[in-house]
Design brief:
Order of helices and strands: EEHEEEEE
Radius of gyration: 15 Å
Strand content: 35-45%
Distance between the termini: 26 Å
Mean pLDDT: 84
Shape: globular
Low-confidence stretches: none
Structural class: mainly beta
Largest sheet: 3 strands, antiparallel
Number of helices: 1
Amino acid sequence: MKKNWEIGTCRSIDYPKFSTFQPITKFEDYGKKEKKFSGFIAYRNQMELSKNQDRRYILFIPEAGEDVELFVNGTSQGIQIAMPEDSFMFEIGQWATP
């Protein structure tokens, strides 16, 4: 796991006002940790991507539940919906800087 990941949560009625983000050292099934939780979970990190014509950048998210919304620089880049056993993939190279 790359460093500097943080987690925030919010109830559905409070979306998109997430709790104060807290650092995490690993991804884990939040539903097993907080059995009564119902709402949204957000993970965030900062990274720099350098444009390279020979390289593609893919954000791969396994086991995220039923949907994933990707934000880049505070702007939604779309929502993907899938079955819980499926994975999510976003092409993120277009946000790399030269």
